[in-house]
Amino acid sequence: MEPSRRAILAALGIGAWALASKTRAQAQLRIGLTAVFLDDEIRFLLRWRAYLEQRLGRKVEFVQRGRYRETVELLREGHLEAAWICGFPYVRFRRELRLLAVPLFEGKPLYRSYLIVPASDSGTRSILDLRGKVFAFSDPDSNSGFLYPNYVLRTAGEPPEAFFKRAFFTWAHRKVVDAVSTKLAHGGSVDGYVWETLRLAPGRLTEGTRVVSKSPEFGHPPIVVRANLAPELAQDLRDAFTGMTRDAEGKALLATLNLDGFALGSDQLFDSIEAMWRIVQPG
């Protein structure tokens, strides 16, 4: 075979392999998740994956990471098509992300941050009563588990970094509840939706805690996609989430998540989170 012809065929072979690889990658939809708080997490995710695959007509992979930042970076770098993230990283990277859907909790696309203490603590009335104590945050990129309590301290004239005797991250809202319940921490800040859902779950983990205060309502942690995701794929995914209330399996999955459904939502839901961020981290 002539060298030039051999080179042409080789190039065509490489091109065909690359095209096949690209097609395979496009056929799979990768959705990022942070720590899930359900007792039977694996079984639930298998059911949810099967549900989405049936409605999307393509393979779905849930990619779990222990920290919000890892999930957001995977999304920003193109290793994920979509992710369920917190409103705090969403407002920080709005130019690179697009809002897909917002969960409905108790009929609204909103949730609160809860300040919790051990159930035996009857004296704490606000976070300001925890000066010099041990405090549990969930994640540095969490609104309810970090940004909001820091905002409260900052606006009260208390530098958050010097307020507590010690503060630590648990990297999951469920673990904040566990840390406070077992008195590893004198207090903690947790996603109110997660606390309320754990309250209904077997084991009654929340019984070892008391809710001291609740924040104003914020936009619920949304499902987002990369800004450059194909519009038709984003729409198909949006339809799959928002359509979960229209069939029995979708309703059953939502009931396990303690959600009423998913709605379109709007960027304005997250403006108050961005305003707090500007105060806590000016510049």
Query: What proportion strand?
Result: 15-25%
Percent helix range: 40-55%
Structural domain count:
2
Distance between the termini: 65 Å
- Give the mean pLDDT: 90
Q: Please trace the helix and strand order, writing H or E for each element.
A: HEHEHEHEEEEHHEHEHEEEHHEH
C-alpha geometry? globular
Name the CATH superfamily assignment of the largest domain: Periplasmic binding protein-like II
Describe the structure.
The chain has 283 residues and is an alpha/beta fold. It folds into 2 domains: 3-109 and 220-268, Periplasmic binding protein-like II (D-Maltodextrin-Binding Protein, domain 2, 3-Layer(aba) Sandwich); 113-215, D-Maltodextrin-Binding Protein, domain 2. Helices cover 43% and strands 21% of the residues. The chain contains 11 helices and 13 strands. It has helices at residues 3-27, 41-56, 68-76, 87-92, 143-155, 160-163, 173-181, 192-200, 231-242, 248-257, 271-280, and strands at residues 28-33, 59-64, 82-84, 97-104, 110-111, 113-118, 134-137, 166-169, 187-191, 209-214, 218-219, 223-226, 261-263. The strands form 3 sheets. Strands 2-1-3-12-4-13 form a 6-stranded mixed β-sheet, sandwiched between helices. A 5-stranded mixed β-sheet has the order 8-7-9-6-10. Helix 2 links the parallel strand 1 (28-33) and strand 2. Helix 2 (41-56) runs antiparallel to helix 10. The radius of gyration is 22 Å and the shape is globular. Residues 5-25 have low confidence and may be disordered.
